[in-house]
Structure formats: C-alpha cells, structure tokens
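Hi, here's the filled form for the chain we discussed.

Project: internal
Contact: R.S.
Residues: 691
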Amino acid sequence: MSPTGQVVRVDSFPTHEHEGIKLRPGRVMPFGATIVEGGVNFSIYSSHATSCKLALFHRGEPEPYAVIPFLDEFRIGHVFAMVVYGLDYEDTEYGYIMDGPNDFAQGHWFDPDKILLDPYAQIISGRDVWGEMPDDGALRPLRSRILQNDFDWQGDRPLQIPMEDLVIYEAHVRGLTAHPSSGVKHPGTFAAVREKIPYLNDLGINAVELLPVYEFDEFENWRMSPDGSTRLLNYWGYSTVGFFAPKAGLAATGHLGMQADELKALVRDLHRNGIEVILDVVFNHTAEGNENGPYISFRGVDNKTYYLLTPDGWYYNFSGCGNTLNCNNPVVRNMILDCLRYWASEYHIDGFRFDLASILGRDQNGAPLENPPLLESLAFDPVLGKCKLIAEAWDAGGMYQVGTFPSWGRWTEWNGKYRDDVRRFLKGDSGVTWRAAQAMQGSPHVYDPQHRGHCASVNFITAHDGFTLMDLFSYNEKQNLANGEGNRDGGNDNHSWDCQLPGATVEQTRALRHQMVKNALSVLLLSHGVPMLLAGDEFGNSQGGNNNAYCQDNEIAWLDWQDLERNGDIFEYTKRLIALRRDHECLRSSRDAGSPTKNGYPRVSIHGVRPWDAEYGGTTFATLFCGDDDFVYIALNMHWQDVDFQLPQLPPGFTWEKSLASAVDADHPSDGQLRVPARSVIVLTSTTQGV
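And the returned structure, exactly as it came back:
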C-alpha cells in the first residue's frame, strides 16, 4: 500500500532500467502502445525477427533520444513486450528496429537500419497537415504515437438502421468541402463535414460511406501535373500506412494530434442527426508497394507473414498496387479483426465497405478459398455483429464474385452488374431491358431471393471510381490527360453518352443531360436493394470527364457547391425521390415478395406498354411495386420517341396520380393511359383522394 493509503499493484513497479529509463516486462496483449499505470505497454509481433528495439523520439525530432532493446525476458513466443515508465504521451513518438535474416528468396527483408511504424499504431505523425511538405523538401518520416482514448461520447451508440432503409452517400472527406465554394471554416476536414450535416439532412440520406480515413501518405508517388500547374497526390488514399490511425491530414486539428477526437466528434454528430457512418477499408494491400517500394512497417516487421509471396520471394499483385496482404494468415487475419473491432468499439462505426474484397478470400498462395476463414470470422464476430459488411466483390487478379461472394447471411455487395446493366439501358442500348428490369426488382437473377434477398445488393450507377452522373451523360470517352498517364488509366468501357443530338442547341443538350441524370436517379433510388449515391451527383457535379481522379487534389475532384444553384432542379428532384422512397415501404421492402398483397397484387411486377405484359425486346418497361394499400408505378421510356403506356387497374377506391417526372413536359395519367416522353421516366403513386 502506498503512503496515501492507495493499493498499488505489484506489476506496476519497474524491474529494469536502461540509460535512466525505467522498464519492466510487458503484457503481450493487446498489441500496440497501451497506456497502463505509470507508463506505456509496448507489444509487437514478429515470428522471424531475431531481436527488436524500441526507438523513442521527442515529437518532431529527427533522431531518437533513446533506443531500448527488448531483453530476452521481454519476449514471449513471437511477441516482444515491455512497459516503459515516465513517458510524456503527447511529446512521445516511437518506432521499432527489427533485426533478422535478409534473404529475398525466403521472403525476409529485415534491416536494422530502418525505424518502423507500429502496425497497431492508433495515431501517426509525419503527415500532420494535408499536402504540407517541409521547407527543405524532405518528407518527415512517419512515426507512431500514443493515443489517450478519453473522448466523451455523451451517450452515443451506433444507429443500427435496417439495411433496406438505408440511402448511402459515398463521399471523400476532403473532396466534399475543399472547394472555396463550400463555405466552411476548415475546408477538407472532418470538422468541415460536420458543417455539412444540415445539408445531408435536407437531402434525406441516412448513411455516409467515407473513402479511406485512416492514415495514408498523400505524397506516395507524387508528381507534377503535365502542365506543371499542380501537384498530383495520392488523393483517394487507397494505400494504407496505418490501419488503426485516423489520417491527421484530414483533420483541422491534425497538427495538434487531435485527429482521433475530431473524427469521433463527426461520427457522434452524424449519429445525432440519424446518419450512419460506413468506412471504406483497404485490407488488400499497403503503401509499401512492390520490391522497389519503401520500408514503412510490415515489410521490416515480418514481411513473410504480412504479404503473399511467390515461392521465390516476389510479391503477388492481386491488388494492382504492387503487393497483396496475406489476409488468411492467422496473424494477419487477427490484425484485421482487431482493427475492425477497434473502429466499431472506439469510433462507433456502423459498417465497413471492403475494397477489392475478393482478395480477402485468397489463400497464402493466392488461390481462391471455398470457405475463406477471414470472411467467415467477420460474418460471425461478436463485436461486429450489428455492423454492415459490404464487399467490393472483385479484385485486380481477375476474381469476380458479384452474386457469389461468400455471405453467411451477413455480407452484402457492391452490385457491379447493376451499374453496367442500368447504364446500358439508360443510354438506349438494345438487349438489356430484361436485365434492367431485374435490377429494379433487387437483382433476383443475381441474388437468390430465398437465401440472400434484395438487400444483398448495394445498387450504384456511379462511384468515386469512374464518371460522375453528369459526366456519364456528357462524354463518350474519358478525359484523363490531366493524370499524366497519356489517357491510358481509368476504365474504357463506361457505357456513357454525351447526349449530343443533330441540330440540338446548347440549351437543348443541357436539358437532355439533366433529364438523363434524373432518369438515372429515378432508377437508382426506386429500385429494390440498397441505393448508393455518389456525392455531388444530386446537383450535377462534373469532373470534366475524368473517370479516374485518384490523384487530383484540385477542382477536378472537389465538389463545386455553386452547382447546387446552377443545377437546383436536379437537387430538388433527388430530394423528392429520396422522400418518396422513405414514404413508401413497398419501394424498400420485399419481405413477403413471394406472397400477394391483401388485394391480390404481386409485391413486384414488370409491365410493358400494356399492363401485365412484359416486353423486353425494346427500350421501355414499367415496374409496379405494391403494398397492401400502397402502389407505385414507374414507367421508363429510353426510346427516342414518346410512348403511350396503358396503366394497370388499381383496386376499387384507388386512382393514379403523377408524383415525379424527369421530363418537364410530362403529362398526367388520363383514362388509364400515360404518355411518357422520349428518354424519360414518370413515377405514379396511388391515391384515394377524389375517388
């Protein structure tokens, strides 16, 4: 007992000393740097290292003030662990020095001259202000820091909104507010997104899906633009430096080391406004690249454990980014689980979208696994039990699993087939009407209604990777020269159309583009499944035809909020579509899709120009969604001429009324008939007024 009468734990006393710094053997779990009584517990795994040292820095200093070896008694199994006493948490940065074999063919890259990031670091310094390069032109090394998890959540918890009720808004934290027109105090930051919450509420979305928010290096492979006017950076951030650490450069307070609290405040305020937070996570590769890439962390800690390697030591590249994380190695699998549990518990994150998720199902030789243990573990993990799990169900190695991604009743998918089929139908291609009609029903041809259901499909027409919706109807070809890759990067098969008709005036072309954007929004937001809207599409954002703006930290990729006024008709139309979806359960749910309504109508049905007579040979069809006392009819005409639809008869006491139309000159239904203008959509809803 201490002189003050407090009970002091025996294991809180130092047992060793190194150059005046007091130490003791540490606890092996959890990995990373954890504040304990009187000190910090440092724990790191490496199965192949022969020794390990802890390098301690005063914040911002280039050289360590202490390098402390882990003694033999500080190692249990393959884990080095010790407690260091008397550290100033806010002033301390740290890294590890690992020694061991350096044998390329055997997969070992140990180098005792490298100081490495902690794979479990919860906060990282070195890129504290976005895009800021030191005056000497040298980039500051990335360093691990110690995080005090003392944020006041004020009773917040994840929202657990049912999947079928979600309307997802995919956004880049910086791109959302970096443009001068955004009108925020700290452009391009978590704090600035908080200022846009009233806008998100007005729009009506209830989930934001944020592109990578954990630490990446925006200066990775940076270069000047072809015309020398701007720096091309790693803007999107799909190249992880630290899986557990929020990116300092995306925080207004990053230079103060407060990025964790700033992100938590954003999550808390979004939750207060009924908006879930889904994080885009990148477990398929890291920023260390291929054999010519830098030492940052994993390569020097235990290269053979963390990466998929060929038998002669080269990196497998199923990510297209130089390396592939060895996700189904038990140690790496546990790291991914630890990471997601950490974000779910410490940041109250509601769900995760997994970039190139098919990689997570490859074995240590790169072959697809029939029952991938990592995907199964995530599906049944107790901490992640209420989190949304969304897979980008393909990878750069040729594996494409849309509709076949292992699910265990938990995984949903970005539906790339939906995107392609709907795009082709909207531009008037023949032979795709049946697939477009299936898409609006929740893609039952892709997702078995009995086993997976329509909510397995996250529907999207555009995403960060590709054309914006306005550009989809403004360009026939990508315009990526500004990326400095000779227009070779980015997809070529875009199914886009520039809406240029012979003899059309500029205003007529503009009107047609607006109409086509509204057509796309109508299909997206009125389809069964989970709609995902790309930020800015709701007000006609353009990237000038660039369909791969991964490196464009400038006006190309930033949202220009002046478009909200210029294209206000699109914004108002989007709001009304989202409200329509919210107000009509039949547009969201098909729990009883196999049974009729009380009036005998099927829950979902496809019609041609005549009711109950689906015709798939042309470019028109209609979808009828029915509830017990609720009916929504969507007529789609992508033909270049007006088409008359005969409407299905409603039960006694109901009549049709026009709710929305993408064409400004669309008529109301009359005498059981509806004329749908060329290349347009009309939405009818049932009413009992005037009957």
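Let me know if anything looks off before we file it.
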